[in-house]
Amino acid sequence: MGVKNLWSLLTPVAEKMPLWELHGKAIGIDLSGWVCDSENFNQNTSQKNMYLRNLFFRTSNLLLIGAIPIFVLDGEAPLLKYGAIEKRINGNKAPIKTHVVRKRLNSFQKQCELLLNIMGVTCVYSPGEAEQLCAILNKNGIVNGIVTQDSDCFLYGARVVYRNFNASGNGSVDVYSMESIEKKLKIGRNKMIALSLLCGCDYDEKGVKGIGKDTAIKFLQALDDDVVLDRLRHWRSDTVLNSANMDIKSQTNEIKLELKIRNKAIENESFPSEDIIEEFLKVPNYPKVSAKWILPDINAFINFALTKLCWEREYAIDKFLPLLTRWHLLYDDTFQANILMSEIIKKRINKGIKCYEIKWNNYEITSIEPQTAVQRRYPTEVSIYEDMHTTSSKKIIKKVTIHDSNLFDVTNKLQSINISKKPAKSKKINEVKDNIKGPLDRFVMKEKIKDDSLTLSDFECDPVDLNISDIINGIIN
Length: 477
What we know:
By secondary structure, this protein is α/β, with parallel strands linked by helices. The chain has helices spanning 6-10, 31-42, 50-64, 82-90, 103-119, 130-139, 152-155, 178-185, 189-199, 213-220, 228-233, 239-244, 253-265, 274-281, 298-309, 313-331, 371-377, 379-415, 427-434, 439-451, 468-476; strands at residues 15-18, 26-30, 68-73, 122-125, 145-147, 160-166, 172-177, 341-350, 353-360, 366-370. Strand 6 and strand 7 (172-177) form a beta hairpin. The radius of gyration is 37 Å and the shape is elongated.
């Protein structure tokens, strides 16, 4: 969930972006979000292990557009979240335990981790929540942005968030930039933490009773981001506010608004929760992570697809081969992939990118690859193909040129003919003239008249109607 109503607050600054614009970027992905999406959808389909199927296709899409995904898996849930997890698992009547193990999620994550390892994609476990490590990786510049549905990521320090990931068609994501949020909405990270304290979040679902999003934001936007948390901390001891509270009617609207929120908040003796503030601001130890794509294992995938996805061998190869060939073209400097290009079949355009259709020596299946990637791995073969293609084009051009030259000569000869109107000389000619329906017929009749020792000048014919281009087209056809 994250912070209550935060997404609706941020929607005005979101920008929809085509998925291909992630090319060249390292992307941190909160795996649990994709798993939950797939499981919710899986209730209406008979597809086995929908979360694995969707994970494969979404990840393949990212890899083939040139993005490098890094998947972050949930670690141990924070103590603050145990109550919320218990309610989700067992309902409101379940007692809060001192330790909660998310067994089902952990099982899903293990299967996803196995698939991602087969695809050559990096997986890393967060020391806590996955969105926490995603945010840290983004803040530290290890990834360019993160894919998540959890708004908590901003409170953990994320700078660029990709939400509503859609891989259908050309694909798209909604982009939320913290720079844009700070500039247009006047809301920074500390204000978001304050909002979570006032309106509720995963660690305190209730927030302050009677305080909604609009009221809280109106108050927070009037403050500087770097002072807002201390302002909440000192509400009880603030002498100015205590004095103003004695005569509320005479105060400015700003003071009245703050007093309204403060008086409700301090009814809770633990407000503001330092545990929640620390959870969002602390920087835990986390494993070293690098953005890279290693060799995909097609044989392991065939077995995995057969057992986990119920895919036939041919179908599994068809879906996985583009990953292996693309990795080979981009990274296989020592030819570890055990695959070689057999031939370039033809040029193609794929989503606006110049490509080649390639046949590979190990498989009967072809793949569509960017011309730049093929050029990098097979410069000699590409040069030969392009030379042959250019030579073939020159021959066609030469043939057309000669043909055009002949047409030019014919045109000159036809244009030199003097066509004028004269009365018909005989009944025979009048009968022939009546059957003339168009320029080509007239031209044919010219030849017939020659055979009968007649001349074109013997015809009553309008020179405008006798179109030279039509005659030439008639000759060619």
